[in-house]
Amino acid sequence: MPDLRVSPRERLVLTAIIELYIATGERVASQSVAHSLADREGLSSATVRNVMVTLAVTGLLAPERDSSMLAEYLERLLSDRSLWAEFSRQGIENAKNRFDIVTQTARLEDLYSAAIAEFKPA
């Protein structure tokens, strides 16, 4: 299996795939990912598809219902200590960046402000 190096674009697409899957519980198509990233990144569905192919080649994205491929990827993750450590490091960094108290407070304040603005009498 190829060496794991994830570009910022690949990380962005993979994160969007995971978030969409968690939100819907359904298979995630490149068009859905492109639509979710359109406002922030302007990626086309073809670009997202190419990134998804790269993620599959590196073992970060397994085809739906392909248990043998998923097992192969998991076996690689469990047997490669440096890969495991890198995934762990990136996961911890991501959690710290996305879920710290300052970020969460700002999101909550934005949500409250939007709700108040929406229901404010004219």
Which short descriptors sum up this protein?
Arc Repressor Mutant, subunit A; mainly alpha; 6 helices; 2 domains; 122 residues; globular
Question: How would you explain this protein's 3D organization?
Answer:
The protein has 2 domains: 1-66, Winged helix-like DNA-binding domain superfamily/Winged helix DNA-binding domain (Arc Repressor Mutant, subunit A, Orthogonal Bundle), CATH 1.10.10.10; 80-122. It is built from 6 helices and no strands. It has helices at 8-24, 30-37, 45-58, 67-79, 81-99, 101-119.
Question: Topology, pairings included?
Answer:
Elements: H1 8-24, H2 30-37, H3 45-58, H4 67-79, H5 81-99, H6 101-119
Helix pairs in contact: 1-2, 1-3, 2-3
Please sum up the structure shown.
The chain folds into 2 domains: 1-66, Arc Repressor Mutant, subunit A; 80-122. It has 6 helices and no strands. The chain has helices at residues 8-24, 30-37, 45-58, 67-79, 81-99, 101-119.
